Amino acid sequence: MRSLPLSQIKMTDPFWTRWQTVLVETTLPAEYDQLVKTDRLKNFERVAKGETGGFDGFYFNDSDTYKFVEACAYGLVARPSEEVRKQMQHCIDLVAAAQMPDGYINTYFQLNHPTMKWRNLNALHEMYCGGHLIEAGVAVYECLGDRKLMDVGIRFADHVMSLYGPDKKVGYCGHEEIELALIKLARASGENKYREFARWLVEIRGCRPSPFEPELQDEESLAIHPFSRKPKPDEKYEGDYYQDHLPIRQHTEVVGHAVRAMYLYIAAADLAEDPELVAALERTWDNLTRKRMYVTGGIGPSAHNEGFTTDYDLPNLSAYAETCAAIGLIFWGNALLQMSGNAEYAETMERALYNGAISGISLSGDQFFYVNPLESRGTHKRTPWFDCACCPPNIARLIGNVSSYVCAAADNDFYIHIPAGFDATTTLGGVKTKISVESNYPWSGKITVRIDPEKPTEFALHFRIPDWSEDVSTEVPNAEEEAGYEKGYAVFKRTWKPGDTLLVDLGMEPKWVESDPRVRDNLGRVALTCGPLIYTAESHDLGFAPQLFCADVEAPIVTQPSDVGEGIKALSVEGSMEVELFADSLYAEPGTTDIREATATFIPYYAWNNRGPSNMQVWVRQL
Ligand code: FUB
Ligand code: ZN
Asked: How confident is the model over 119-131, as a mean pLDDT?
């Protein structure tokens, strides 16, 4: 199965149409301003003019421009905007003008270190930036039909392949990305050599000797990276930070930097054609989602390596859970879903999409989180940009491209992974067919699917039944066939006629969940959920810090509107709270604390911190 090209699908529900409108009207123009203000575009301009020196900022800043362009391409399909189109075009023209005749492009090296190219692959992101360039080029070509930027990407890819490969030097990037980009390039250009080169990059990684080992002794190139240091003489090279610890087929658990790991596994899932690689990906996925993932779909708890630690280590207050890592998890889930047809992957994709990824952007669309903790004591806040600004354009491209994750099609099958509202047109059973999902997801589990083929056609409609759903009912009016059930989907294989419908009620009700007790930070605590959404308690609604609250999980949960944003549903629950009465002593005998009845209103996690900093807690104590 494949996602539908964006030209064949349009989001229609209030949730995603609002996000896509905000994307084009606010997020993209705001990000463009930041690219200008922070000299990211100036770097391309200066290279094009033949200037040297003076690059300021992170050595991978070019990638922000590329991701911005990619997001524009998606956004413009959803919502035409002359302003955004011009901004995107300006970026494309600058990038094309900055490329060297041999295909090389990276303004950090071109301006500041023209003699140091390809000397420090482990740290300096040349292929990573090139990967984002390629992805942007493919997106502009596929969405808007303009191949100028893709041709820049092709020249870069050919340049890399003139240096590295099975019969050339062994080398790969410390930050995976180019692998998945090359796979997209192969598809868009029809040139399979890019896919085969991606396969080589994925498979060679982790073999010994690692190309990174000699690089780590190259003092001249280490000196131009802000964090690199030469290993001590007795220090054994491990490589797990950049998934260079083992060949991918031997992976059993997620290690190192979370975004890097996700990007590697996305490419690997696209390439997995044999049982050994599939098994490696399945067990690594299981390790991640069963032992190392937050309830929000956030991943990578540690700031130290921006990544993974050990099983069940999921601290809430100090959770790193980078926005980009949750986005990477969505991409990986989608790749495994398309490989296997197994709804388990859609389940996690949905969790990350509606919670730990979308939390990375403010409801207004112009303030961002890099780090997505599950608890705050009032100091965490959103900002318009970051020095290391990977997350803002990443969330922009996710929102622009969200229709790639809600459904997929094959010749005789249509899959609804996430029942968000959309209108799609594709060919099923050889007949052009329109599929419309009418829904107010994630606020309601009542869904109508309208099927409109040009003439009767036989195909299987697969509708995912989420793990959280209860008392599911499905009905195809006037039909006699029973639905089948396969890999987590209700399957309706029949001859569909123009005007047919499928009615689904997922039985969406608020409910509490608890954690495996091995997640020590959540012992005695519960989290409130409703459908795909994880809820959180914020002091703005409670009037007191949620850390003082204890929930009564037996009490009724009342749904009500929230003032945090239009259409957002809040959930009100009963419990108790400690009253902060200790006047002049820090400690006293048990029973001194006054405990009162209290009501707490929870809002969706993704919407927290939109009314200024607050105390916030997802995992609240249980009475
Ligand atoms: O290194 C490039 C990006 O910056 C990574 O993906 C993020 O984790 C941040 O380190
Ligand atoms: Zn990021």
From this structure: 97
Gap from CA of 327 to ligand 2 centroid (Å): 9
Whether residue 158 contacts residue 278, with contact meaning beta carbons closer than 8 Å, is answered with: no
Cα distance between residue 41 and residue 27, in whole Å: 17
Environment class of residue 596 by beta-carbon count within 10 Å: exposed (0-12), middle (13-18) or buried (19+)? exposed
Helix (H) or strand (E) holding 417: none
Beta partners for residue 451, in sequence order: 435, 500
Helix (H) or strand (E) holding 457: strand 457-464
Torsion sign across C-alpha atoms 552, 553, 559, 562: positive
**Least distant ligand from the CA of 357:** 2
Beta strands in 497-610 (DSSP E): 500-505, 510-513, 525-530, 533-538, 549-551, 558-561, 569-579, 594-604
How far apart are the C-alpha atoms of 89 and 615, rounded to whole Å? 42
Other Cβ atoms closer than 10 A to 371: 17
| pLDDT tens digits, 284-312 | 999 999 999 999 999 999 999 999 999 99
Q: How far is the CA of 555 from the centre of ligand 2 (A)?
A: 39
**Sign (positive/negative) of CA torsion 357, 281, 415, 476?**
negative
Of the chain, the end-to-end C-alpha distance in Å amounts to 47
- In the numeric block, which tokens belong to residue 21? 């409108």
What is the distance of C-alpha 192 from the center of its chain? 27
Q: Looking at this protein, which amino acid is placed at residue 270?
A: D
Q: How far is the CA of 325 from the centre of ligand 1 (A)?
A: 9
Task: Please state, in angstroms and rounded to a whole number, the distance separating the CA atoms of residues 332 and 340.
Answer: 12
CA of 389 to the centre of ligand 2 (A): 7
The per-residue pLDDT for range 107-123, each reduced to its tens digit, is 999 999 999 999 999 99
Pocket test for ligand 1, best of 125, 228, 306 (most atoms within 8 A of CB): 306
The ligand placed nearest to the CA atom of residue 393 is 2
> Structure tokens of 132?
């984002």
If you measure from the C-alpha of residue 125 to the centroid of ligand 2, how many angstroms do you get, rounded to a whole number? 14
Q: pLDDT above 70 covers what percent of the chain? A: 100
The structure's pTM equals 0.98
Beta-bridge mates of residue 164: 169
Rounded (to 5) percent helix, strand, coil in the chain:
40, 20, 40
**C-alpha triplet 311, 316, 317: angle, nearest 5°:** 135
């084009």: which residue's tokens?
Answer: 24
**How many CB atoms sit inside 10 A of residue 15's CB?**
20
CA nearest ligand 1 atom 4, residue = 390
SS3 594: strand
Q: Which ligand is closest in space to the CA of residue 395?
A: 2
Mark out the alpha helices in 549-610 (DSSP H runs). none
- Which H/E stretch holds residue 150? helix 148-163
- Pocket, ligand 1, Cβ cutoff 6 A: 60, 175, 259, 306, 322, 324, 388, 390
